[in-house]
Amino acid sequence: MDDSSDPYLPYDGGGGDGIPLRELHKRGTHYTMTNGGNINSSTHLLDLLDEPIPGVGTYDDFHTIDWVREKCKDRERHRRINSKKKESAWEMTKSLYDAWSGWLVVTLTGLASGALAGLIDIAADWMTDLKEGICLSALWFNHEQCCWGSNETTFEERDKCPQWKTWAELIIGQAEGPGSYIMNYIMYIFWALSFAFLAVSLVKVFAPYACGSGIPEIKTILSGFIIRGYLGKWTLMIKTITLVLAVASGLSLGKEGPLVHVACCCGNIFSYLFPKYSTNEAKKREVLSAASAAGVSVAFGAPIGGVLFSLEEVSYYFPLKTLWRSFFAALVAAFVLRSINPFGNSRLVLFYVEYHTPWYLFELLPFILLGVFGGLWGAFFIRANIAWCRRRKSTKFGKYPVLEVIIVAAITAVIAFPNPYTRLNTSELIKELFTDCGPLESSSLCDYRNDMNASKIVDDIPDRPAGTGVYSAIWQLCLALIFKIIMTVFTFGIKVPSGLFIPSMAIGAIAGRIVGIAVEQLAYYHHDWFIFKEWCEVGADCITPGLYAMVGAAACLGGVTRMTVSLVVIVFELTGGLEYIVPLMAAVMTSKWVGDAFGREGIYEAHIRLNGYPFLDAKEEFTHTTLAADVMRPRRSDPPLAVLTQDNMTVEDIETLINETSYNGFPVIMSKESQRLVGFALRRDLTIAIESARKKQEGIVGSSRVCFAQHTPSLPAESPRPLKLRSILDMSPFTVTDHTPMEIVVDIFRKLGLRQCLVTHNGIVLGIITKKNILEHLEQLKQHVEPLAPPWHYNKKRYPPSYGPDGKPRPRLHNVQLKPIAEEREETEEEVHLLNSTTL
To answer: Where is this region: Disordered (predicted)?
Structure first.
C-alpha cells in the first residue's frame, strides 16, 4: 500500500524521518471519499447507508450533544429539500412549510406562554388573598376586584367593603379586637401551610423536575446537555399548578424565574410538531432560546428585556435569525398577556410608575451606594445560599423535602403576619415601594406633615417633614428587610417552584425606599448645604423616594444574577421609567463590580456548579499555562486508552469492549502496526448498529468481522458475513497535539460545542479530552495554586516516537499505552538530536 495515496495518514507538522505525510481534510459538512469507480464524490457522513439505522445520531439522557454534527445534519436536510422543491407542487409546499416552521413554532410558544402567564397571575392573586378572607358576592374575585363595584368604601379604608369578609368575620363574627386578630393569624398560617404542602407533594409525586427556578437547568440544556423530561408535558402541568400554590403560600419567592421554565416547556413541546426541530437537538435549542425570551416578556411585561435576557444570560448559541424569532415570540407573548389584562390596570406591567421630578447630579452618590449594597447583598446571598444547599445535599435534612418546605413555610407565615409589609404579596409590596407619594395615596409611607400655607399642586408636591406614620413605616421596613434577607437564603432551592427575581427586587426596593426617605429628609432640613443648595430650594420637590426603591431593586437583582444590559432594560420596561436609565445603569454596574470583587459567579452559575452540570461558562477566562497532555485521559495510573481497529476486530470483541468499559466513544485506528487515526465511533451508535444488524441482516454473529474501512478486506470463504459500520464513523474527529495550550482547547470546546477531542503526538493517538475532563481541570485549578509552566518539550519525552530508527512503524496493541514512568528519563538519539537542533 502506497502511503502517499492514503487519505487517512495524519499530518504531524512535516516530521523529520522522511515518511510521506498528507494533511487530513478539515471538518465540514461534506467528507470527500473515493468510491468503487475511483471517482471522487462529496457525500455526507449519514447518507452512506441505503437505509439509515434507526437511533443512530440520537443521544442518551444526561449526555451532551455534538453541535457540529447536528449543524451538519441540518445543512444536509436543507440541501435535500431545496434540491427537490422544483420537482412538484407538493415538494414546493413542503419546502415552504419547512421555511416557515420556525416562525410557526415560536408563534405557538408565544401564545401558550402568554396565556399560561395570565392564568398564573390571576390565580396567584386570588389564592394570595384567600389567606385573609373571601368575597361573598363573587368567590372568584380577589380582594381588590371584590371592592371595585362597592359604593361604601372610604378614602382612608379603600380596601374595606361589605362584600369582602375576613375569616374572623365568617368564623367568630368579629371584625375587630384581639379575638379577630388571632383567628385571622391562625387562618393565615393554615392556608400558607396547606398551599405549601400541596405544592411540594405534587412536585415530589408527579414531577420532581418542576422544583426550583429552572434557569440553571435551562442554561445547561441550551449549552447542549440532555435532561429528558425536564421540559416535558408533566413538568409543564405540575410547574404551572405548583407555581400558583408556592406564590400564594407567602414564601419568599417569585414566579418570574419559573415562568422562563414554563415557556421553555411550551417551546419544547411545540417543537415536536415540526420535524425540522424534533429530529435535531441543535435546532431545538434555537426554539428554546426564543421561548426563554417569551418567558421573561410575560414575567415582567418586558419584551425587549426578554430578548436581551435570552442573549446575555441563558443562550449558548444565538444566531441572528434566533434574535428575530426571539423578538417575535416575546412580542406575541406580551400581546396575549396584554389581552388577558391580569392586573386590571390596562397595562402590561404591575409596577408602572410615573415620577414628576427629574433626578439631579448629586443623587448619583446615593445611587452608587445602593449599587454597593446590591453587590454586597448578591455576594452574601450567593455564598450563604450555596453553603446551605450544599449542607442540604450532604445531610439527612435533604432527604425530607416535604418537611423542609413545611418548616420554612411555617416560620415565614408566623413571622410575616404581624408586619404589614411582609404580610403583603411581594409584588404588591414592590409596587407600593415604587409608588411616588401623591395627594391620593393613603399608605403610611406617605404620612407626611402638610404645610397648610404651601400651595398644593397635584403633580408636584414639595418635600415635607416626615410624620409619625413614615417613621413607623421605616422601622417596619427595616424589620422586613432583615426578614426577607434571611428567609430568601433558606427558601431558594427548596423543592417547590421558586424564583429569585422578585425577592431580590423586594430587598433592594426596601433598602432603596429607606435611603430615599433619609435623603429626602436630609434635603428638607438641610437645604442650605452646598450639595442641596442649587436644586433643593424651600418648597421644592427634588427627591423622589420611589425612584430610590426602583434603583435599589435593580442593584440587588444585578448583584445576585450579575446581569447588566438586560436588567436595565427590564427595569425601565417594568416601570416605564425611561428617563431614569442613567441612575439604573450606574447602580447596576456598581453592583456588578462590587459583586465580582467577591466572586465572578452569579447565582445561576453557582447552582450549575453545585449540581455538577457540564456547563462551560463563556464569561470565565482561562489564564493557566497547562497543556493538553496534562488534562487528557488516560493518565499514567489509569487503564490504557481503549481503541478499535479498522478491520481486525469481531462483533464479539467490540461488544466485550463496550461491556467492560464505560466510555462514550472509541478512536478507530488502521491496524496494530500502523497506528494512524481513521475516525471516532460513539458507544451508543455502535450498540444500536450491532443490535440492528443482528435483527435485520442474516449471518451476523459474534465472530463476524467488523469493518470500518471503505472496502471490505478479503476473507476466507467459510468466514461469517462481515458487518460494515463505516456509516456510523466520524472520519474527521477534532484532534489537537499534546503540546496544545489548554486555553486554546477550552476555546475550541466553548465555541464549537465539542463533546470530545483526541490528543495525538506524531500521528499516534495518545488520549482523549472530554468536556467533563475540562470542567474537572478548571475546578482543580480553582482550588489549587497554578503549577509552574513546563518547558515546551517536556511532554515530548513521555511518549515513544511514531517510527523507529529504521523508518518502520513501531508495533502496537489495541490499547494505547503511555510510556512507563521509569523509561521517561531515557531518551533515544532521535529525541536528543531533535531537542538540540531546534531553536526556540
So the answer is: 821-840
